[in-house]
Amino acid sequence: MALRGLGFALALLALGAAPIRAQTPPAASPPAANAPTTAAAPAAPDSVPVGEITVRSQAAVESARSLESDLAEEDDAKQLEADLVRLAQRIEPELPKRTAELQHAPSIATLSTLATEWQGYDRQLGSREDHLRRLIASLEGQNDELSRSRALWKRTRAQARERDVPPVILAAADAALAAIAKASAAVDGALNDALVLQSQYADLHGSVEQVLGSIETTRARVLANLLVRDVPPLWDVSGTGLGEWTHWRIGDNLLLLRDSNLVLSERDLCTGDETVLAGQRLLELPFLSATLIAGISNFLRGHRGPSGGH
Hints:
The chain is an all-alpha fold. Helix content is about 75%, strand content about 0%. It folds into two domains: about 1-15 and about 45-225, no CATH class; about 240-305, no CATH class. The protein has ten helices and no strands. The protein is rod-shaped and about 125 Å long. The N and C termini lie far apart (about 95 Å).
């Protein structure tokens, strides 16, 4: 894999910059009993020893060239860029159509289909963004390591000039610096390309997340409307709206029944005597009474004929 090749080249480059010890330093004498002990962290080497400049310069040059070659053959970024183009060609034409469709409150089944489709886009973009983040982290690590190697070889060349070393030694240090600078430029270019690609993925992913949010908002609105009671219930005969309509329909059918001599006259209904109270108790079950009265009135309408009677 390309990332492994880059890591291997980076390890070689670090090896070229690491100090080579010819012998083990003598062990330090144990401190006195009352002497305070201080833990000193190993300091980074100031420069490459003069006797190791030529050998380690060759290793640094080979490692930098290998890193540069791996970056040229890097296919992860190319594949991610191709995937972005493919996904954008599928998603971007759908954005205005889906936005307009969601304005008209589609059915629950349609919303479920849309959610499944756009959640798939969300997962595809998310997985590629994760891969891209790992690639960027790897390139940033390589850039940091190259910066440390360049600083080491700059100190090495400066100290070598102070010691008036032979020109061939200075040329070796210059060769290492030149190779590191070229590899660093290649890493910077790859890193900039990856960052631009990451921004493009983020923009497309943001559009997908916006559509998913609209789908969820529309779904909540549709479900809420399914449970809204926009008219009074049939059994509510005390209020306005359907209650008044129910009173009217019951009264209308009572008049029809009165004309058919099946109930008391209107005058009797208004006296408040026991017969009227019985009728009021019947209306305490409005749905049952409305159904009963409507059935009787429909029966009477069917037998009265177009002339209004038999």
